[in-house]
Amino acid sequence: MICSGFICISCSEICYGEEGFSLLCCFSPCSLHLLQLKLRALPPQRSFQVHLRIVSVILPDWEENMGSWKDQMLSSNGEAPGPASDASTLVLAANRTKRPDILARFHRYRGGWDIANKHYWTSVGFTGAAAFSLAILWFVSFGVALLVHYSCGWKIKFTRNEASWSLRICLLLLILFTSAAAIGCILLSVGQVDFHGEAMDTLNYVVNQSEFTVETLRNVTEYLSLAKTVNVAQIFLPSDVGNDIDQLNVQLNSAADTLELKTNENSSKIRIVFSKVKSALITIAAVMLVVSLLGLALSIFGHQHVIHIKNTYLVFLSSLHSYHRPKSAPMLFSAIADTCLAMGEWVENPHAETALSNILPCVDQRTTNQTLYKSKQVINDISNMVNGFVGSVANSNPPPQAGSSYYNQSGPVIPPLCYPYDAQLQERICSDGELSMEIASTVWQTYTCNVSSFGICTSVGRLTPAMYTELLTAVNVSYALEHYAPVLLNLQNCNFVRDTFRNITSSYCPPLDHYLRVVNAGLGLISVGVMLSLALWILYVNRPQREEVFAKLSSRIRRGCGSGDGVLSAGATPRHGA
Protein backbone atom coordinates (compact mmCIF):
# COMPACT_ATOMS: atom_id res chain seq x y z
CA MET A 1 0.00 0.00 0.00
CA ILE A 2 1.30 3.45 -0.95
CA CYS A 3 0.92 5.98 1.85
CA SER A 4 0.98 9.73 1.51
CA GLY A 5 -0.11 12.74 3.53
CA PHE A 6 -0.59 12.81 7.26
CA ILE A 7 -3.33 12.67 9.87
CA CYS A 8 -3.39 14.70 13.08
CA ILE A 9 -5.39 13.30 15.98
CA SER A 10 -5.85 14.80 19.43
CA CYS A 11 -5.80 12.03 22.03
CA SER A 12 -6.84 12.67 25.62
CA GLU A 13 -7.14 10.08 28.34
CA ILE A 14 -9.40 10.45 31.34
CA CYS A 15 -8.23 7.99 33.99
CA TYR A 16 -9.50 7.08 37.39
CA GLY A 17 -6.66 8.55 39.47
CA GLU A 18 -4.26 11.42 39.46
CA GLU A 19 -2.31 10.30 36.42
CA GLY A 20 -3.37 11.54 33.05
CA PHE A 21 -1.90 13.11 30.00
CA SER A 22 -2.88 14.33 26.56
CA LEU A 23 -0.93 14.31 23.35
CA LEU A 24 -1.14 15.50 19.78
CA CYS A 25 0.24 13.07 17.24
CA CYS A 26 0.70 13.46 13.52
CA PHE A 27 1.51 10.37 11.52
CA SER A 28 0.97 8.77 8.15
CA PRO A 29 -2.02 6.53 7.46
CA CYS A 30 0.24 3.47 7.42
CA SER A 31 1.03 3.95 11.13
CA LEU A 32 -2.54 4.13 12.39
CA HIS A 33 -2.30 0.62 13.76
CA LEU A 34 0.70 1.64 15.92
CA LEU A 35 -1.45 4.05 17.92
CA GLN A 36 -4.07 1.35 18.33
CA LEU A 37 -1.48 -1.11 19.67
CA LYS A 38 -0.04 1.46 22.08
CA LEU A 39 -3.46 2.30 23.52
CA ARG A 40 -4.29 -1.38 23.97
CA ALA A 41 -0.98 -1.91 25.78
CA LEU A 42 -2.05 0.35 28.68
CA PRO A 43 -2.92 -1.41 31.97
CA PRO A 44 -6.46 -2.82 31.74
CA GLN A 45 -7.29 -1.85 35.34
CA ARG A 46 -7.22 1.81 34.37
CA SER A 47 -10.58 2.29 32.80
CA PHE A 48 -10.27 5.09 30.33
CA GLN A 49 -12.12 6.60 27.44
CA VAL A 50 -10.35 7.69 24.31
CA HIS A 51 -11.65 10.71 22.43
CA LEU A 52 -10.41 11.04 18.89
CA ARG A 53 -10.78 14.19 16.84
CA ILE A 54 -9.72 14.08 13.22
CA VAL A 55 -8.18 17.41 12.36
CA SER A 56 -7.34 16.82 8.70
CA VAL A 57 -7.25 13.89 6.36
CA ILE A 58 -5.27 14.20 3.19
CA LEU A 59 -6.38 10.92 1.63
CA PRO A 60 -10.11 11.08 0.78
CA ASP A 61 -10.74 7.34 1.26
CA TRP A 62 -9.43 7.35 4.84
CA GLU A 63 -12.39 9.15 6.36
CA GLU A 64 -14.55 6.06 6.25
CA ASN A 65 -11.70 3.82 7.43
CA MET A 66 -10.91 6.14 10.31
CA GLY A 67 -14.56 6.09 11.35
CA SER A 68 -14.61 2.32 11.66
CA TRP A 69 -11.21 2.33 13.41
CA LYS A 70 -12.42 4.96 15.84
CA ASP A 71 -15.58 2.96 16.61
CA GLN A 72 -13.46 -0.10 17.24
CA MET A 73 -11.24 1.79 19.67
CA LEU A 74 -14.15 3.36 21.55
CA SER A 75 -15.84 0.00 21.97
CA SER A 76 -12.74 -1.77 23.35
CA ASN A 77 -12.94 -0.59 26.95
CA GLY A 78 -12.51 -3.73 28.97
CA GLU A 79 -15.36 -6.13 28.20
CA ALA A 80 -15.49 -9.47 29.94
CA PRO A 81 -13.65 -12.20 28.08
CA GLY A 82 -15.80 -14.34 25.82
CA PRO A 83 -15.94 -15.81 22.37
CA ALA A 84 -14.80 -13.35 19.78
CA SER A 85 -17.48 -12.25 17.35
CA ASP A 86 -16.45 -11.20 13.91
CA ALA A 87 -18.82 -8.47 12.78
CA SER A 88 -16.95 -7.82 9.56
CA THR A 89 -18.81 -8.04 6.29
CA LEU A 90 -17.55 -10.62 3.83
CA VAL A 91 -18.17 -10.11 0.11
CA LEU A 92 -19.04 -13.56 -1.19
CA ALA A 93 -18.05 -14.77 -4.66
CA ALA A 94 -16.49 -11.37 -5.29
CA ASN A 95 -14.40 -12.38 -8.29
CA ARG A 96 -17.10 -14.43 -9.96
CA THR A 97 -19.77 -11.74 -9.64
CA LYS A 98 -17.69 -8.93 -11.16
CA ARG A 99 -19.97 -8.45 -14.14
CA PRO A 100 -21.21 -5.34 -15.95
CA ASP A 101 -24.22 -3.83 -14.23
CA ILE A 102 -26.78 -2.35 -16.60
CA LEU A 103 -28.35 -0.19 -13.87
CA ALA A 104 -24.92 1.26 -13.03
CA ARG A 105 -24.14 2.30 -16.62
CA PHE A 106 -22.31 -0.97 -17.28
CA HIS A 107 -19.83 -0.44 -14.45
CA ARG A 108 -18.69 -3.68 -12.89
CA TYR A 109 -20.78 -4.93 -10.00
CA ARG A 110 -18.65 -5.41 -6.87
CA GLY A 111 -21.21 -6.24 -4.22
CA GLY A 112 -20.72 -10.00 -4.37
CA TRP A 113 -23.45 -12.60 -4.07
CA ASP A 114 -26.63 -11.01 -2.72
CA ILE A 115 -30.04 -12.22 -3.85
CA ALA A 116 -31.68 -9.21 -2.19
CA ASN A 117 -29.71 -6.74 -4.35
CA LYS A 118 -31.24 -5.76 -7.69
CA HIS A 119 -27.81 -4.82 -9.02
CA TYR A 120 -26.70 -8.40 -8.47
CA TRP A 121 -29.56 -9.71 -10.60
CA THR A 122 -28.91 -7.22 -13.39
CA SER A 123 -25.27 -8.32 -13.43
CA VAL A 124 -26.40 -11.95 -13.54
CA GLY A 125 -28.68 -11.08 -16.45
CA PHE A 126 -25.67 -9.80 -18.35
CA THR A 127 -24.28 -13.36 -18.52
CA GLY A 128 -26.75 -14.05 -21.34
CA ALA A 129 -25.74 -10.97 -23.33
CA ALA A 130 -23.80 -12.88 -26.01
CA ALA A 131 -26.53 -15.43 -26.70
CA PHE A 132 -29.13 -12.70 -26.46
CA SER A 133 -27.31 -10.68 -29.12
CA LEU A 134 -27.20 -13.71 -31.42
CA ALA A 135 -30.93 -14.23 -30.92
CA ILE A 136 -31.65 -10.61 -31.83
CA LEU A 137 -29.40 -10.88 -34.90
CA TRP A 138 -31.12 -14.06 -36.02
CA PHE A 139 -34.56 -12.55 -35.46
CA VAL A 140 -33.74 -9.45 -37.51
CA SER A 141 -32.01 -11.31 -40.35
CA PHE A 142 -34.75 -13.90 -40.63
CA GLY A 143 -37.38 -11.19 -40.56
CA VAL A 144 -35.63 -9.36 -43.40
CA ALA A 145 -35.43 -12.59 -45.39
CA LEU A 146 -39.13 -13.22 -44.93
CA LEU A 147 -39.94 -9.64 -45.90
CA VAL A 148 -37.92 -9.97 -49.11
CA HIS A 149 -39.50 -13.34 -49.81
CA TYR A 150 -43.09 -12.17 -49.45
CA SER A 151 -42.69 -8.64 -50.83
CA CYS A 152 -40.33 -9.14 -53.77
CA GLY A 153 -41.37 -12.65 -54.72
CA TRP A 154 -37.81 -13.89 -54.32
CA LYS A 155 -37.55 -17.66 -54.50
CA ILE A 156 -34.86 -20.27 -54.86
CA LYS A 157 -35.30 -22.00 -58.21
CA PHE A 158 -34.24 -25.58 -58.77
CA THR A 159 -33.60 -27.05 -62.18
CA ARG A 160 -35.42 -30.23 -63.15
CA ASN A 161 -32.34 -32.34 -62.48
CA GLU A 162 -31.54 -30.68 -59.15
CA ALA A 163 -35.08 -30.70 -57.82
CA SER A 164 -35.29 -34.40 -57.04
CA TRP A 165 -32.14 -34.85 -54.90
CA SER A 166 -32.37 -31.34 -53.40
CA LEU A 167 -35.86 -31.96 -52.09
CA ARG A 168 -34.83 -35.32 -50.69
CA ILE A 169 -31.88 -33.79 -48.84
CA CYS A 170 -34.09 -30.95 -47.63
CA LEU A 171 -36.69 -33.41 -46.33
CA LEU A 172 -34.05 -35.51 -44.57
CA LEU A 173 -32.56 -32.44 -42.91
CA LEU A 174 -36.01 -31.24 -41.94
CA ILE A 175 -36.75 -34.58 -40.27
CA LEU A 176 -33.31 -34.51 -38.60
CA PHE A 177 -33.73 -31.01 -37.15
CA THR A 178 -37.30 -31.72 -36.08
CA SER A 179 -36.04 -34.83 -34.28
CA ALA A 180 -33.32 -32.73 -32.63
CA ALA A 181 -35.94 -30.26 -31.42
CA ALA A 182 -38.10 -33.13 -30.13
CA ILE A 183 -35.12 -34.66 -28.31
CA GLY A 184 -34.41 -31.23 -26.83
CA CYS A 185 -37.99 -31.05 -25.57
CA ILE A 186 -37.60 -34.47 -23.94
CA LEU A 187 -34.28 -33.48 -22.34
CA LEU A 188 -35.83 -30.24 -21.13
CA SER A 189 -38.81 -32.06 -19.61
CA VAL A 190 -36.70 -34.69 -17.86
CA GLY A 191 -34.04 -32.20 -16.79
CA GLN A 192 -36.47 -29.69 -15.32
CA VAL A 193 -38.21 -32.41 -13.29
CA ASP A 194 -34.90 -33.59 -11.80
CA PHE A 195 -33.64 -30.03 -11.35
CA HIS A 196 -36.80 -28.85 -9.63
CA GLY A 197 -36.82 -31.89 -7.36
CA GLU A 198 -33.17 -31.39 -6.37
CA ALA A 199 -33.72 -27.67 -5.82
CA MET A 200 -36.71 -28.37 -3.57
CA ASP A 201 -34.71 -31.00 -1.66
CA THR A 202 -31.98 -28.43 -1.09
CA LEU A 203 -34.46 -25.84 0.09
CA ASN A 204 -36.22 -28.34 2.35
CA TYR A 205 -32.87 -29.30 3.84
CA VAL A 206 -32.17 -25.67 4.74
CA VAL A 207 -35.67 -25.24 6.14
CA ASN A 208 -35.34 -28.43 8.21
CA GLN A 209 -32.05 -27.21 9.66
CA SER A 210 -33.68 -23.93 10.57
CA GLU A 211 -36.68 -25.68 12.10
CA PHE A 212 -34.37 -27.92 14.13
CA THR A 213 -32.60 -24.85 15.50
CA VAL A 214 -35.88 -23.12 16.31
CA GLU A 215 -37.15 -26.26 18.02
CA THR A 216 -33.93 -26.48 20.04
CA LEU A 217 -34.28 -22.90 21.25
CA ARG A 218 -37.92 -23.41 22.18
CA ASN A 219 -37.15 -26.68 23.99
CA VAL A 220 -34.44 -24.98 26.02
CA THR A 221 -36.94 -22.25 26.87
CA GLU A 222 -39.47 -24.84 28.05
CA TYR A 223 -36.93 -26.71 30.18
CA LEU A 224 -35.66 -23.50 31.73
CA SER A 225 -39.24 -22.53 32.57
CA LEU A 226 -39.80 -26.00 34.00
CA ALA A 227 -36.65 -25.64 36.11
CA LYS A 228 -38.31 -22.72 37.92
CA THR A 229 -41.02 -25.08 39.17
CA VAL A 230 -38.64 -27.83 40.31
CA ASN A 231 -38.77 -28.35 44.07
CA VAL A 232 -37.54 -31.00 46.44
CA ALA A 233 -39.28 -30.99 49.82
CA GLN A 234 -40.57 -27.46 49.07
CA ILE A 235 -37.06 -26.22 48.27
CA PHE A 236 -37.00 -24.15 45.05
CA LEU A 237 -34.32 -22.45 43.01
CA PRO A 238 -33.25 -19.00 44.22
CA SER A 239 -35.53 -16.16 43.13
CA ASP A 240 -32.76 -14.32 41.27
CA VAL A 241 -32.19 -17.42 39.14
CA GLY A 242 -35.88 -17.44 38.28
CA ASN A 243 -35.75 -13.79 37.22
CA ASP A 244 -32.72 -14.47 35.03
CA ILE A 245 -34.57 -17.37 33.42
CA ASP A 246 -37.53 -15.13 32.61
CA GLN A 247 -35.32 -12.54 30.94
CA LEU A 248 -33.42 -15.20 29.04
CA ASN A 249 -36.61 -16.84 27.80
CA VAL A 250 -37.66 -13.55 26.23
CA GLN A 251 -34.38 -13.38 24.31
CA LEU A 252 -34.60 -17.04 23.28
CA ASN A 253 -38.14 -16.65 22.00
CA SER A 254 -37.11 -13.54 20.08
CA ALA A 255 -34.14 -15.34 18.51
CA ALA A 256 -36.32 -18.32 17.57
CA ASP A 257 -39.02 -16.07 16.08
CA THR A 258 -36.45 -14.11 14.06
CA LEU A 259 -34.84 -17.25 12.66
CA GLU A 260 -38.20 -18.81 11.85
CA LEU A 261 -39.52 -15.64 10.21
CA LYS A 262 -36.46 -15.10 8.02
CA THR A 263 -36.35 -18.72 6.92
CA ASN A 264 -40.05 -18.86 6.09
CA GLU A 265 -40.00 -15.58 4.17
CA ASN A 266 -36.98 -16.48 2.06
CA SER A 267 -38.05 -20.06 1.47
CA SER A 268 -41.43 -18.82 0.23
CA LYS A 269 -39.76 -16.41 -2.20
CA ILE A 270 -37.39 -19.11 -3.46
CA ARG A 271 -40.27 -21.57 -3.93
CA ILE A 272 -42.16 -19.00 -6.00
CA VAL A 273 -39.13 -18.41 -8.22
CA PHE A 274 -38.53 -22.11 -8.81
CA SER A 275 -42.23 -22.71 -9.46
CA LYS A 276 -42.22 -20.01 -12.13
CA VAL A 277 -39.07 -21.48 -13.68
CA LYS A 278 -40.69 -24.93 -13.68
CA SER A 279 -43.86 -23.63 -15.34
CA ALA A 280 -41.86 -21.73 -17.96
CA LEU A 281 -39.72 -24.76 -18.83
CA ILE A 282 -42.74 -27.06 -19.07
CA THR A 283 -44.50 -24.55 -21.33
CA ILE A 284 -41.45 -24.21 -23.57
CA ALA A 285 -41.05 -27.99 -23.86
CA ALA A 286 -44.72 -28.62 -24.68
CA VAL A 287 -45.22 -25.72 -27.09
CA MET A 288 -41.98 -26.21 -29.02
CA LEU A 289 -42.63 -29.95 -29.38
CA VAL A 290 -46.06 -29.25 -30.87
CA VAL A 291 -44.56 -26.50 -33.04
CA SER A 292 -41.85 -28.80 -34.43
CA LEU A 293 -44.17 -31.69 -35.23
CA LEU A 294 -46.84 -29.41 -36.66
CA GLY A 295 -44.30 -27.66 -38.83
CA LEU A 296 -43.00 -30.97 -40.18
CA ALA A 297 -46.52 -32.21 -40.91
CA LEU A 298 -47.60 -29.01 -42.65
CA SER A 299 -44.39 -28.94 -44.67
CA ILE A 300 -44.98 -32.44 -45.99
CA PHE A 301 -48.77 -32.49 -46.38
CA GLY A 302 -49.85 -28.86 -46.30
CA HIS A 303 -50.63 -26.40 -49.09
CA GLN A 304 -48.34 -23.52 -49.87
CA HIS A 305 -50.49 -20.72 -48.44
CA VAL A 306 -51.04 -22.70 -45.23
CA ILE A 307 -47.29 -23.17 -44.91
CA HIS A 308 -46.69 -19.46 -45.44
CA ILE A 309 -49.12 -18.52 -42.65
CA LYS A 310 -47.64 -21.21 -40.44
CA ASN A 311 -44.10 -19.99 -41.09
CA THR A 312 -44.99 -16.43 -40.15
CA TYR A 313 -46.48 -17.60 -36.87
CA LEU A 314 -43.70 -20.07 -36.10
CA VAL A 315 -40.97 -17.55 -36.85
CA PHE A 316 -42.52 -15.23 -34.30
CA LEU A 317 -42.96 -18.02 -31.74
CA SER A 318 -39.48 -19.42 -32.25
CA SER A 319 -38.01 -15.95 -32.10
CA LEU A 320 -39.82 -15.35 -28.84
CA HIS A 321 -38.34 -18.56 -27.45
CA SER A 322 -34.89 -17.65 -28.71
CA TYR A 323 -35.35 -14.21 -27.18
CA HIS A 324 -36.03 -15.54 -23.69
CA ARG A 325 -33.92 -18.71 -23.66
CA PRO A 326 -30.49 -16.98 -23.69
CA LYS A 327 -31.53 -14.86 -20.74
CA SER A 328 -33.22 -17.43 -18.51
CA ALA A 329 -30.80 -20.37 -18.78
CA PRO A 330 -27.51 -18.51 -18.19
CA MET A 331 -29.10 -16.43 -15.43
CA LEU A 332 -30.27 -19.53 -13.60
CA PHE A 333 -26.97 -21.30 -14.17
CA SER A 334 -24.95 -18.29 -12.96
CA ALA A 335 -27.17 -17.67 -9.92
CA ILE A 336 -26.89 -21.27 -8.71
CA ALA A 337 -23.15 -21.40 -9.37
CA ASP A 338 -22.75 -18.11 -7.49
CA THR A 339 -24.76 -19.46 -4.57
CA CYS A 340 -22.72 -22.65 -4.28
CA LEU A 341 -19.47 -20.68 -4.44
CA ALA A 342 -20.74 -18.18 -1.86
CA MET A 343 -21.65 -20.96 0.55
CA GLY A 344 -18.22 -22.52 0.11
CA GLU A 345 -16.52 -19.21 0.89
CA TRP A 346 -18.73 -18.62 3.92
CA VAL A 347 -17.77 -22.02 5.32
CA GLU A 348 -14.18 -20.73 5.43
CA ASN A 349 -15.30 -17.49 7.17
CA PRO A 350 -18.31 -18.56 9.25
CA HIS A 351 -18.43 -15.59 11.63
CA ALA A 352 -18.56 -12.87 8.99
CA GLU A 353 -21.79 -11.02 8.29
CA THR A 354 -22.83 -11.83 4.73
CA ALA A 355 -25.85 -11.87 2.45
CA LEU A 356 -26.27 -15.58 3.31
CA SER A 357 -27.70 -14.41 6.63
CA ASN A 358 -30.90 -13.77 4.68
CA ILE A 359 -31.17 -17.50 3.95
CA LEU A 360 -30.06 -19.08 7.22
CA PRO A 361 -28.87 -16.59 9.85
CA CYS A 362 -26.72 -17.48 12.82
CA VAL A 363 -28.33 -17.24 16.23
CA ASP A 364 -27.33 -14.16 18.18
CA GLN A 365 -24.07 -15.06 19.92
CA ARG A 366 -24.80 -13.07 23.06
CA THR A 367 -28.10 -14.91 23.51
CA THR A 368 -26.50 -18.32 23.06
CA ASN A 369 -23.69 -17.38 25.47
CA GLN A 370 -26.17 -16.37 28.14
CA THR A 371 -28.31 -19.44 27.51
CA LEU A 372 -25.37 -21.81 27.78
CA TYR A 373 -24.10 -20.09 30.91
CA LYS A 374 -27.51 -20.01 32.59
CA SER A 375 -28.24 -23.63 31.66
CA LYS A 376 -25.04 -24.82 33.31
CA GLN A 377 -25.77 -22.68 36.34
CA VAL A 378 -29.29 -24.07 36.66
CA ILE A 379 -27.98 -27.65 36.36
CA ASN A 380 -25.52 -27.07 39.19
CA ASP A 381 -28.20 -25.32 41.27
CA ILE A 382 -30.55 -28.28 40.84
CA SER A 383 -27.76 -30.71 41.72
CA ASN A 384 -26.95 -28.60 44.76
CA MET A 385 -30.62 -28.59 45.76
CA VAL A 386 -30.88 -32.38 45.38
CA ASN A 387 -27.66 -33.04 47.29
CA GLY A 388 -28.72 -30.65 50.02
CA PHE A 389 -31.95 -32.57 50.55
CA VAL A 390 -30.23 -35.97 50.35
CA GLY A 391 -27.49 -34.99 52.78
CA SER A 392 -29.56 -33.09 55.34
CA VAL A 393 -32.85 -35.00 55.25
CA ALA A 394 -32.82 -38.33 53.41
CA ASN A 395 -29.50 -39.59 54.79
CA SER A 396 -30.13 -38.29 58.30
CA ASN A 397 -31.58 -40.28 61.17
CA PRO A 398 -33.67 -37.73 63.07
CA PRO A 399 -35.81 -38.63 66.07
CA PRO A 400 -39.60 -38.87 65.68
CA GLN A 401 -40.05 -35.48 67.29
CA ALA A 402 -37.95 -33.79 64.55
CA GLY A 403 -41.08 -32.86 62.65
CA SER A 404 -41.18 -32.96 58.84
CA SER A 405 -37.58 -34.19 58.67
CA TYR A 406 -38.65 -37.51 60.14
CA TYR A 407 -40.53 -40.08 58.08
CA ASN A 408 -38.91 -43.21 59.52
CA GLN A 409 -36.09 -43.25 56.96
CA SER A 410 -33.57 -46.03 57.41
CA GLY A 411 -31.14 -48.24 55.54
CA PRO A 412 -27.95 -47.49 53.58
CA VAL A 413 -27.26 -43.87 52.70
CA ILE A 414 -27.96 -42.46 49.25
CA PRO A 415 -24.87 -41.49 47.20
CA PRO A 416 -24.72 -37.83 46.16
CA LEU A 417 -25.61 -36.61 42.70
CA CYS A 418 -22.71 -35.72 40.43
CA TYR A 419 -22.10 -32.07 39.57
CA PRO A 420 -21.61 -31.98 35.77
CA TYR A 421 -19.73 -28.66 35.99
CA ASP A 422 -17.19 -27.22 38.37
CA ALA A 423 -17.20 -23.76 39.95
CA GLN A 424 -16.00 -22.21 36.68
CA LEU A 425 -18.84 -24.05 34.84
CA GLN A 426 -16.35 -26.26 33.03
CA GLU A 427 -17.14 -29.93 32.48
CA ARG A 428 -15.90 -32.27 35.18
CA ILE A 429 -15.68 -36.03 35.53
CA CYS A 430 -17.82 -37.62 38.22
CA SER A 431 -15.81 -39.01 41.08
CA ASP A 432 -16.28 -42.42 42.65
CA GLY A 433 -19.39 -42.63 44.77
CA GLU A 434 -21.30 -39.97 42.80
CA LEU A 435 -24.38 -40.71 40.76
CA SER A 436 -24.47 -39.55 37.19
CA MET A 437 -27.76 -38.23 35.89
CA GLU A 438 -28.10 -41.17 33.49
CA ILE A 439 -28.40 -43.75 36.30
CA ALA A 440 -29.68 -41.60 39.16
CA SER A 441 -33.36 -42.47 38.67
CA THR A 442 -32.63 -46.22 38.63
CA VAL A 443 -30.44 -46.08 41.75
CA TRP A 444 -32.86 -43.88 43.67
CA GLN A 445 -35.66 -46.34 43.06
CA THR A 446 -33.81 -48.94 45.14
CA TYR A 447 -33.86 -46.53 48.09
CA THR A 448 -37.63 -46.02 47.96
CA CYS A 449 -39.71 -47.32 50.85
CA ASN A 450 -43.34 -48.25 51.25
CA VAL A 451 -45.39 -45.64 53.06
CA SER A 452 -48.47 -45.57 55.21
CA SER A 453 -51.44 -43.28 54.77
CA PHE A 454 -49.57 -40.70 56.87
CA GLY A 455 -46.52 -40.68 54.56
CA ILE A 456 -44.31 -42.61 56.99
CA CYS A 457 -42.01 -45.34 55.71
CA THR A 458 -43.17 -48.81 56.68
CA SER A 459 -40.19 -50.55 55.09
CA VAL A 460 -36.47 -49.95 54.78
CA GLY A 461 -35.69 -46.98 52.60
CA ARG A 462 -34.77 -43.33 52.64
CA LEU A 463 -37.11 -41.92 49.99
CA THR A 464 -40.87 -41.88 49.92
CA PRO A 465 -42.55 -42.29 46.52
CA ALA A 466 -43.44 -38.58 46.54
CA MET A 467 -39.83 -37.63 47.23
CA TYR A 468 -38.64 -39.99 44.52
CA THR A 469 -40.99 -38.30 42.04
CA GLU A 470 -39.66 -34.86 42.96
CA LEU A 471 -36.05 -36.00 42.62
CA LEU A 472 -36.87 -37.70 39.32
CA THR A 473 -38.41 -34.48 37.95
CA ALA A 474 -35.38 -32.47 39.03
CA VAL A 475 -32.84 -34.84 37.48
CA ASN A 476 -34.86 -35.10 34.25
CA VAL A 477 -34.82 -31.32 33.84
CA SER A 478 -31.09 -31.24 34.57
CA TYR A 479 -30.42 -34.06 32.15
CA ALA A 480 -32.40 -32.31 29.41
CA LEU A 481 -30.53 -29.05 29.89
CA GLU A 482 -27.22 -30.93 29.94
CA HIS A 483 -28.24 -32.72 26.74
CA TYR A 484 -28.87 -29.40 24.99
CA ALA A 485 -25.56 -27.88 26.12
CA PRO A 486 -23.57 -29.26 23.11
CA VAL A 487 -26.35 -28.12 20.80
CA LEU A 488 -26.21 -24.63 22.28
CA LEU A 489 -22.44 -24.65 21.87
CA ASN A 490 -23.00 -25.58 18.23
CA LEU A 491 -25.34 -22.61 17.88
CA GLN A 492 -22.91 -20.35 19.71
CA ASN A 493 -20.15 -21.05 17.18
CA CYS A 494 -22.60 -20.96 14.24
CA ASN A 495 -21.51 -24.49 13.42
CA PHE A 496 -25.01 -25.54 12.42
CA VAL A 497 -25.03 -22.99 9.57
CA ARG A 498 -21.50 -23.96 8.55
CA ASP A 499 -22.40 -27.67 8.50
CA THR A 500 -25.54 -26.91 6.51
CA PHE A 501 -23.72 -24.94 3.83
CA ARG A 502 -20.84 -27.42 3.71
CA ASN A 503 -23.29 -30.26 3.13
CA ILE A 504 -25.08 -28.27 0.42
CA THR A 505 -21.87 -27.50 -1.47
CA SER A 506 -20.71 -31.13 -1.32
CA SER A 507 -23.98 -33.06 -1.72
CA TYR A 508 -26.53 -30.79 -3.37
CA CYS A 509 -24.60 -28.42 -5.65
CA PRO A 510 -23.10 -31.11 -7.98
CA PRO A 511 -26.51 -32.66 -8.83
CA LEU A 512 -28.00 -29.20 -9.34
CA ASP A 513 -25.18 -28.35 -11.72
CA HIS A 514 -25.68 -31.61 -13.63
CA TYR A 515 -29.45 -31.25 -14.02
CA LEU A 516 -29.08 -27.62 -15.01
CA ARG A 517 -26.66 -28.64 -17.76
CA VAL A 518 -29.27 -31.13 -19.01
CA VAL A 519 -31.86 -28.34 -19.07
CA ASN A 520 -29.44 -26.07 -20.88
CA ALA A 521 -28.67 -28.78 -23.44
CA GLY A 522 -32.38 -29.30 -24.05
CA LEU A 523 -32.95 -25.59 -24.56
CA GLY A 524 -30.00 -25.45 -26.94
CA LEU A 525 -31.30 -28.34 -29.04
CA ILE A 526 -34.73 -26.75 -29.19
CA SER A 527 -33.33 -23.40 -30.29
CA VAL A 528 -31.04 -24.81 -32.98
CA GLY A 529 -33.52 -27.42 -34.20
CA VAL A 530 -36.46 -25.05 -34.55
CA MET A 531 -34.43 -22.23 -36.10
CA LEU A 532 -32.90 -24.49 -38.76
CA SER A 533 -36.26 -26.14 -39.35
CA LEU A 534 -37.75 -22.72 -40.06
CA ALA A 535 -35.16 -22.11 -42.77
CA LEU A 536 -35.85 -25.51 -44.31
CA TRP A 537 -39.59 -24.90 -44.20
CA ILE A 538 -39.05 -21.80 -46.34
CA LEU A 539 -37.01 -23.82 -48.83
CA TYR A 540 -39.41 -26.73 -48.82
CA VAL A 541 -42.33 -24.43 -49.63
CA ASN A 542 -40.83 -23.81 -53.09
CA ARG A 543 -40.93 -27.46 -54.15
CA PRO A 544 -43.44 -28.44 -56.83
CA GLN A 545 -46.72 -29.06 -55.08
CA ARG A 546 -48.91 -32.08 -55.66
CA GLU A 547 -51.38 -30.19 -57.83
CA GLU A 548 -48.58 -29.16 -60.19
CA VAL A 549 -47.20 -32.69 -60.37
CA PHE A 550 -50.61 -34.21 -60.97
CA ALA A 551 -51.40 -31.61 -63.63
CA LYS A 552 -48.19 -32.34 -65.54
CA LEU A 553 -48.72 -36.07 -65.17
CA SER A 554 -52.32 -35.92 -66.38
CA SER A 555 -51.39 -33.77 -69.39
CA ARG A 556 -48.74 -36.29 -70.37
CA ILE A 557 -51.24 -39.10 -70.03
CA ARG A 558 -53.77 -37.25 -72.12
CA ARG A 559 -51.19 -36.57 -74.81
CA GLY A 560 -50.14 -40.20 -74.78
CA CYS A 561 -53.69 -41.41 -74.93
CA GLY A 562 -54.48 -39.02 -77.79
CA SER A 563 -51.66 -40.33 -79.96
CA GLY A 564 -52.54 -43.91 -79.12
CA ASP A 565 -56.17 -43.39 -80.12
CA GLY A 566 -55.08 -42.16 -83.57
CA VAL A 567 -53.01 -45.25 -84.22
CA LEU A 568 -55.73 -47.51 -82.93
CA SER A 569 -58.39 -45.92 -85.11
CA ALA A 570 -56.21 -46.19 -88.22
CA GLY A 571 -55.42 -49.84 -87.65
CA ALA A 572 -58.96 -50.84 -86.80
CA THR A 573 -60.66 -49.60 -90.05
CA PRO A 574 -62.29 -52.60 -91.82
CA ARG A 575 -61.31 -53.28 -95.35
CA HIS A 576 -64.15 -53.53 -97.82
CA GLY A 577 -64.28 -56.43 -100.11
CA ALA A 578 -61.90 -58.55 -98.11
Characterise the protein shown here.
- The chain crosses the membrane at residues 120-145, 165-190, 279-301, 515-540.
- This protein is mainly α and 578 residues long.
- The chain has three domains: 7-74, no CATH class; 132-363 and 497-545; 367-399 and 408-493, no CATH class.
- Helices cover 64% and strands 5% of the residues.
- The chain is built from twelve helices and five strands.
- It has helices at residues 32-40, 62-74, 118-125, 129-152, 160-229, 239-301, 304-348, 365-394, 440-445, 465-492, 495-541, 546-571, and strands spanning 7-14, 22-27, 49-57, 100-101, 107-108.
- It has a three-stranded antiparallel sheet, with helices on one face. The chain has a two-stranded antiparallel sheet with strand order 4-5.
- Strand 1 (7-14) and strand 2 (22-27) form a beta hairpin.
- The N and C termini lie far apart (130 Å).
- Residues 1-87, 322-326, 546-554 and 564-578 have low confidence and may be disordered.
Helical content class? 55-70%
Tell me the total number of β-strands: 5
Strand order of the largest sheet: 2-1-3
The pLDDT mean sits at: 74
Anisotropy-based shape: elongated
End-to-end separation in angstroms reads 130 Å
Biggest β-sheet: count, sense, barrel? Answer: 3 strands, antiparallel
List the helices and strands in order.
EEHEHEEHHHHHHHHHH
Q: What is the secondary structure topology, with strand pairs?
A:
Elements: E1 7-14, E2 22-27, H1 32-40, E3 49-57, H2 62-74, E4 100-101, E5 107-108, H3 118-125, H4 129-152, H5 160-229, H6 239-301, H7 304-348, H8 365-394, H9 440-445, H10 465-492, H11 495-541, H12 546-571
Antiparallel strand pairs: 1-2, 1-3, 4-5
Helix pairs in contact: 4-7, 5-6, 5-10, 5-11, 6-7, 6-8, 6-11, 7-11, 8-10
